[in-house]
Specification:
Blueprint: H1 3-12, H2 28-31, E1 35-39, E2 44-47, E3 51-58, E4 63-66, E5 69-71, E6 78-84, E7 88-98, E8 101-111, E9 127-130, E10 136-138, E11 143-149, E12 155-158, E13 162-166, H3 169-172, E14 177-183, E15 193-201, E16 206-218, E17 225-229, E18 234-237, E19 249-253, E20 258-265, E21 268-272, E22 278-282, E23 286-288, E24 298-299, E25 303-307, E26 311-317, E27 324-329, E28 334-340, E29 342-343, E30 349-351, E31 358-367, E32 370-377, E33 385-390, E34 393-399, E35 411-416, H4 433-450, E36 454-457, H5 467-477, E37 481-488, E38 498-501, H6 508-518, E39 525-529, E40 544-551, H7 555-561, H8 564-585
Helix pairs in contact: 1-4, 4-8, 6-8
Amino acid sequence: MDYASLFRFIIDFRTKFILIAGWPLMLAAQQAPKLKVAFPTSDSTIVAEGIAFFKGQADPSGMLFLNGNEVQVYRTGMFAAPLHLTEGDNELHVRYIVGSDTVCRRMVVVYKKPAPPQPTSGFAIDDVRLSMEGDLWLQPGDLLQVEMKAPPGMKATFYKGIPLFEVDTADAEVAGIYRGEYVIQPSDSLMEQAIRFVLYDETTQQTVTKDSRQRITVLNQSHALTGLTKTNDVPLFYGLGTDRLGGAKMGYLDSLVKLEITGKMNDMYRLRLSEQVQAYVPVDFVRLQQGVHFRPYSLTGSWMVSSDSTNDFIRIGLNERLPYTAIVQHAPTRIVVDIYGAVSNSNWITQKDSLIAIENVWYEQVSKGVFRVYVETKQPQLWGYDVGYSGTQLVIRVKAQPPKLDLGKLRVAVDAGHGGRNRGATGMTGALEKDLNLSMALKLKTALERIGTTVIMTRETDRSFNNGDRLTWLKAQHPDLLISIHCNASVNPLVQGTSTYYRHHAYRPLSRHILAQLRKLGLADFGNVGGFNFALNAPTGFPSALVEVAFLSNPADEERLLDIGFHDEVAERIVDGLRDFLEAVQ
């Protein structure tokens, strides 16, 4: 049984026997091949980038040299070293000494830069594109930006004979790139129509055309276009940018919230929240309203602020469900909620004497379409809040600080990242992130329960549980805190270290205290990362922190991650970080 298989075997049957405390899983070192080079993949390898990594597996009792420099072989048998390549052939002389044996290999890595883009051949239009993806809905005043690739030195136009201008070759990296802009006019009446591009050779008087694959519709109707959100937790985006975790989000909306739609691009509806604020929402989350519907608008009613002994509630009456966003300000700590389309008719605010989380509430009409609510809390540390609708009444729930800031008295959710079909990252040894996450999460559960903490686990076995379902389940558990445990990974095997992540600034102290404790394990500092767009950091209802313990892709970090004794140390450091957080709050 190889090293990674042994580790997975132990994880799969961890509930059936007790691991000997501190036993490092290093048996693979005894079975590792004398030298197995994972990269370069052959004696002659071609790459398209100037930086690569010499990596593989060897018997750690030996000594490995690359071009005369020793390369560290970790106890797992893994090794990695950077290759800074020059264009052309790069010779690698590998020498490996183990016992009385010496293995020598000569390898060549050929750094071949990608061929530069080539100009269009012949009289033709190679490609046309619009600045945004998908079919577009635009309004008068919107800017349409286009690009075309064709032979250089020609006359080019698009749409209604609007000129295209050739871009300087140094900027475009190839000759024959034409660009143009056009401001949509009220007279434009496009309805799911392609944009035509025209190329004209003044010497031969030849003309060639090409239509865009995308279709454009101009929203020039006399009334507003509106829609309703289909479900709860509808994401509201600042813009059209994206990355592997999705674009930056303003927040989330309830179902049946009325939205004014002013465009569509990149499979997102553009929304008008106010005269100065716009947002985007995925098309699949909105049902368009047919016929004529008025823009989102409501007068506000008078308020009631009350408590149920665990949470305080603010209830604001509206005529319909309007869009909203919320942020948290500090010094003093207060929740600020903007309700778009609302106009004040709030003539009194009743605050009960029994409030336990809220110090005071007030409002201001910051513009004719933005009604702003301020909620000042009694304690500097925010312990959770939610904004949502009950009927057409907007309800702001503010969670009170636990009566005793004793970790043994709290309810802590522990999430073992990934699981089941979602394996997460894979280490150089073949170890799976999902298994390591689960092992460390179970260790944390044990450490917390030892001091009396009520622990809620998202999973205790190797099962699939997608983040959307985890999020729904976690919200229903009402934890005091959430810790999600993961292992990091990078394409660069030399990147290493521990890190913590938070989404909302109010919950940064939790992540910082945990990171400070993890650094005591001698791990490199990868950092405390804020505004992180991770699903389990998204809830505002309870403080949360994502812990990326170490890099599974780094041989030094992986060596520690594969030591069960290290899992105990990680658990204890997280517990100490939680204690430090609670002590700082008092």
